[in-house]
Amino acid sequence: MPRMTRRAFRLLPVLLAVALTAPAGGQEPQGQPRVHVTYWEKWVSFEAQAMQQVIDAFNRSQDRITVDYYSTSLVDRKTLVATAGGDPPDVAGLNAQNVATFADAGVIQPLDDFIRGDGTSDKEWLARYYPIYARICSHGGHVYAGISTPAVMALYWNKTLFREAGLDPDRPPRTLAEFNDYSRRLTKRDPKTGRLTQVGFLPQDPGWWPWIFCRWFGGSLFDGRRITFATDPRNVAAFEWIQSFTKFYGLEDVKLLSSEFGPWASPAAPFFTGKIAMVFQGVFYDNYIRQYKPGLDYGVGPWPEAVPGVRDFAMAEADVLTIPVGARHPREAWAFIKYINSCNPNARTRGELRGAELLDYLQVKASPLQVWSPFFAEHNPHPHIDIMRRLSASPDAVCIPDLGIWQEYFREVISAFDRVRLLDATPEEALGYSQARLEKSWDRYRRSLERHGQWSALGEVAP
Amino acid sequence: MTRSERKRLRSGIGFTSLWIVGLAAFTAYPVVASLYYSFCDYSILKSPVWCGLENYHQLVRDDLFWKSLRNTLFYAGLSVPLGTVVALGLAVLLNCEVRGRSIYRLLFFMPSIVPAVASAMLWLWIFNGEYGLMNGFLNPILAPFGLHAPTWLADPAWSKPALVIMSLWGTGNAMVIYLAGLQNVPGELYDAAAIDGASAWQRFCHVTLPVIAPVVAFNAIMAIISAMQLFAQAYIMSEAANGNGNASDGNPARSTLFYTIYLFSTAFQDLRMGYASAMAYILFLVTALLTWMAARLSRSRHGDAI
Question: How far B274 CA lies from chain A's nearest CA (Å)?
């Protein structure tokens, strides 16, 4: 080996050590090194860009913590596996439906100690949210999550199709009876073939939350001790209503029309192409309308009154921020979650927005917090922010039940929904079948929690 | 064992030690551990609690377990024979002396190297009830009879047959193996059969098939194993065609709830790893049984085929 090469070879370990210990990009400030918090989140595109801006604001707001954002597909499964492997992220951006299951499975840790460490109680901490979002953050009497972005669902209608059907485009249906009537009047068939060309409403579009129809009809899915999917007659009534659409339109006609539908987030989505006149969609839907069907003349309103007296029924969901068990920097992760779940209530300019409001302003969504700053309330870019705020605050807003077996429950609801809408079973049969399966699942789940000594600690489960 | 043999053994083990460690850590240990977990109440992050045969008892009484098994056997029962016939038929045709034979071979093999996700997206469009290529072809034929082609993936009655049809897209691998087998059939056997007055069909049945029987048996066994593990295409297509955000329930109406999809949702959505491990062992036993039956059938017909 030539002498020069040998010398270079000896220098290699030294160079490697320097490279490994040197701060990345040479951007670390002098003095105390910053703690790097790893944050896995499902978002890509504009939602990720918005979050990155908020992270940058957080990183600038103090000199101790740097949050590193990683767009992660299938973030729930990857968090689960990484936590099991002992190398989880510090913050995991999950979905509301993960909270109870992951909490019971020991994937995410309660935030109670952090909240108490800040000199507040869980109750005081949760009081910042609209009550429905406070429920989403909690499980079994503990706080397990903060909200990253909330979603409240409302009725979207196509004003052009309303006009064509002779309906007032500025007056959405206010009751269930009106909704059914509008739906029929908005249905069109090809005069030659008799095939459906347009429907007023189709329960399977988008089909993400068929359980919500039970709650809309006043039913419950769980009474705190027992599964009530088939035993609550209001749920059966909701599924009869779902089936009435297939019976009215005709099964084959619905199948044919549905096969023309493109993905919901595409220009071929049925609401954008005018094949469906009314849909229940979330606060995020306006962004997609702007992207895929700019110029669409549409309105947004509350759900029609299905139960007399319930005027502002709404369904809420949320993306949540959690700290997995075994996270390396839980305190710093909590500092970030706290930032995202707070705001500057006095913000009067765009530059003064902070935390939740900055994120929701950039993502064009509503805030989950009860207090809105003057700028956020008055200059919100969401075209229907008032109705979204009203529905978020509604005492009749509902969310998924706080159940560790929710994933199974959800699959059973989807199965019953498919069987009913495809006229494969009567609502009683479909719900009865699912009820029997879910009762077994709940008994088994309870037994498993008892085996692991968790049942007594879980306390009463909220319906 | 002599001293030099021992030395060679040590060298051999040394050179293969990395592979042995990999096999032990990433294959042998998980296989043994999952057998243990199949007798436990285990949800990944909590300590497994021994529950004896409870998971297996629950499996026997779980109608979704039986439904997913039925769906899988239905798919395997159709796709394996159909795939075998199509692959063998293509191989026989591509074994003929025609101009541009290598181009045809390439064209028929190419689909099998398309990634599963890409081919699933392609077939989604082919099976689209309104705009799809399949119904664009079928509807003009059916229209005079007042019929309409099925909506395939959106129809519980047609979703599994659609996946069977799609499975033919990937017969290129089997076709290449058949082609290799066909090229090993001695030409003199065909000459002797021709002299005896055998027709082309008789030559195929009495010369070609017996000679390539081990290849057929091998391909059939591989196809059975692959069909029993069907996951990616069904998972993607059932979600994309029905779009309710729940791919792991075999949409529509659980008509495409295949065994591995149910296993996956049990393990990674419900976090019932013990139950999923029990399911995995049952799948292993079912696949082993089918493989044994296929090998036995082949042996009884053609001697020691494989």
Answer: 11
In this prediction the pTM is 0.88
Burial of B140 (0-12, 13-18, 19+ CB in 10 A): exposed
Chain B interface includes A359 (CB < 8 A): no
Measure the CA–CA gap between A99 and A447, rounded to whole angstroms: 20
Mean pLDDT of chain A: 92
Of B46, B243, B246, nearest to A105 by CB-CB distance is B46
Q: Is residue A238 within 8 Å of A216, Cβ to Cβ?
A: yes
Which among B51, B243, B268 has the least Cβ separation from residue A77? B268
Cβ contacts of B276 within 8 Å, gap of 6 or more = B263, B264, B266, B267
Share of chain B above pLDDT 90, in %: 75
Nearest to B243 among A77, A210, A263 (CB): A263
Residue A30, pLDDT > 80, answer no
Residues of chain A positioned with their CB less than 8 A from the CB of B49:
451-452
A462 pLDDT band, cuts 50/70/90, is very low
Residues of chain B in contact with residue A418, where contact means CB-CB under 8 angstroms, are 156, 251-254
Question: Which residue of A258, A325, A437 is in closest CB contact with B154?
Answer: A258
- Strand bridging mode A278-282 / B40-41: unpaired
Three-state secondary structure call for residue A421: helix
CATH number for region A30-151+316-398: 3.40.190.10
Q: Which of B47, B129, B269 sits opposite A407 (nearest CB)?
A: B269
Q: Do the bridges between strand A138-139 and strand A142-143 make them parallel or antiparallel, or are there none, so unpaired?
A: antiparallel
Nearest to A407 by CA among B172, B248, B27, B274: B248
**Residue A77 contacts B, CB cutoff 8 Å:** yes
Interchain contact A207–B (C-beta under 8 A): yes
Burial of B104 (0-12, 13-18, 19+ CB in 10 A): middle
B149 → chain A, closest CA residue: A256
- CATH topology for A163-315+402-448 is D-Maltodextrin-Binding Protein; domain 2 (3.40.190)
d(CA A459, CA A158): 46
Q: Position A1: which residue type?
A: M
Residues of chain A with CATH 3.40.190.10: 30-151+316-398, 163-315+402-448
Q: Are A250 and A236 in contact (CB under 8 A)?
A: no
| Distance between CA atoms of residues B15 and A426, nearest Å | 66
A252 in contact with B at a CB cutoff of 8 Å? yes
This complex has an ipTM of: 0.84
CA neighbor of A96 nearest in space, from A33, A146, A29, A25: A146
- Residue to substitute from A415, A421, A443, A446, interface B, most B β-carbons within 10 A: A415
List the 15-44 stretch of A: residues with Cβ below 8 A of B: none
Searching chain B, which residue's CA lies closest to the CA of residue A269? B243
Identify the bridge partners of residue A36 per DSSP, sorted by sequence position.
Answer: A66
Name residue A149's beta-bridge partners: A319
B249, B256 in Cβ contact below 8 A? no
Question: A339, A368 in Cβ contact below 8 A?
Answer: no
The model's pLDDT over A190-221, given as tens digits with 9 standing for 90+, comes to 999 888 999 999 999 998 899 999 999 999 99
Q: What are B82's two structure tokens?
A: 């159909």
How far apart CA B245 and CA B252 sit, in angstroms, is 12
Domains of chain B from N-terminus onward: 57-302 (1.10.3720.10)
